[in-house]
Amino acid sequence: MGAIKAARAFTGRPKIAKVEGAYHGLYDYAEVSQTAKPESWGKKDKPTSVPVAHGIPAKALSDVVVIPFNDIERARAILDANKDEIACVLLDLMPHRVGLRPAEADFVEFLREWTTKDDALLVLDKVITFRSTYGGAQGWYNIAPDLTAMGKMIGGGFPVGAIAGRKEVMEVMNPLADKVLFPHSGTFSANPVTMTAGLVSMIDFDEEAIDQVNALATRAIDGINEAIAETGIKACVTGGGSVFRVHLKEHPPHNYREAYTTPEENARLVVLLDHLFDEGFLMINTCAAVMATSLRNTEIDALVAALKGGFAKIK
Ligand SMILES: Cc1ncc(COP(=O)(O)O)c(C=O)c1O
């Protein structure tokens, strides 16, 4: 929310653009189209702005421009149609609900170029992907955003959110400025417990820890791919850095519409997740996982073995 409001304050423009299906929190604008369904998502060339929460104002929907992931031509046409009105393009470089696959480099470069040309901002949501490399998932690409939103791991287990970015853009939140364009405060601002826990975890955050958790995810992905091949199930696994997601689809999805789970897939996913639960693994309903430094290879191998048993059951 803060990054979107900062982008609006900096550019003086009302609209934002976001990727269909991407989750960016509960803010009205950020959540648009996060749960779009085949009956509501509209044409590929012009995805509909679909509400999530009941009662969202119509103006919030019309101020959100929805673009397809990894589709430069369609994204360009949609963005061009809203030229001069877009404050920012909000992008998660590996959005979980869009399939948990890293964005293609040319798509990311296109969004960087388009925003620069249109005087809009590129805002990276690194709430999850900050952990992907020591410099965050943007280390996979040759770009720099105007603003970055962070959360989760930077709080050392406590609730946290942070915005970083270009000095001129951050200035809109400067409480000492003559005119503060985006006044920013709240109950949790600069919370001392969170700040202390976050500082300690950022001091401990080093390349060794990243290598360790990334190696665990690579081990899991390799093991799951083997389990898929050995059981012959139509499934695949996506991910990057220290996260992964199992899909009950033959081919890895490129966008939200391809990642969308059909009722039939959901029914099988429930059986798989129940099986994993019985084996001692509680997984999110998308069958995704995030590696922690406390994990070891034995736990990963046990998860892979449990998944293999589940694959055999639902095949
Ligand atoms: C990618 C991503 N962006 C944004 C958010 C929202 O963060 P917050 O709850 O701090 O608003 C989340 C939370 O799960 C997230 O996963």
Write the layout of secondary structure elements.
Layout: H1 2-11, E1 15-19, E2 42-43, E3 46-47, H2 58-62, E4 64-67, H3 72-80, E5 86-91, H4 105-117, E6 121-125, E7 147-151, E8 161-165, H5 167-170, H6 192-204, H7 207-231, E9 236-240, E10 243-247, H8 256-259, H9 263-278, E11 288-290, H10 297-314
The chain binds pyridoxal-5'-phosphate (PLP).
Pyridoxal-5'-phosphate (PLP) is lined by residues 23-25, 92, 125, 127-128, 151, 161.
Q: What top-tier CATH class of the largest domain fits best?
A: Alpha Beta
User: What's the overall geometry?
Assistant: globular
Bound molecules: pyridoxal-5'-phosphate
What is the CATH topology assignment of the largest domain? Aspartate Aminotransferase, domain 2
What fraction of residues sit in β-strands? 5-15%
Major sheet, described briefly? 6 strands, mixed
Class from secondary-structure proportions: alpha/beta
Cα-to-Cα separation, first versus last residue: 42 Å
Supply the number of helical segments.
10
- Number of separate domains: 2
Order of helices and strands: HEEEHEHEHEEEHHHEEHHEH
- Cross-sheet strand order for the largest sheet: 4-1-5-6-7-8
Rg over C-alpha atoms, rounded to the nearest angstrom: 20 Å
CATH homologous superfamily caption of the largest domain? Type I PLP-dependent aspartate aminotransferase-like (Major domain)
Q: Which regions contain 5 or more consecutive residues with pLDDT less than 50?
A: none
Strand elements, count: 11
The average pLDDT is: 97
User: Which percent bin holds the helix content?
Assistant: 25-40%
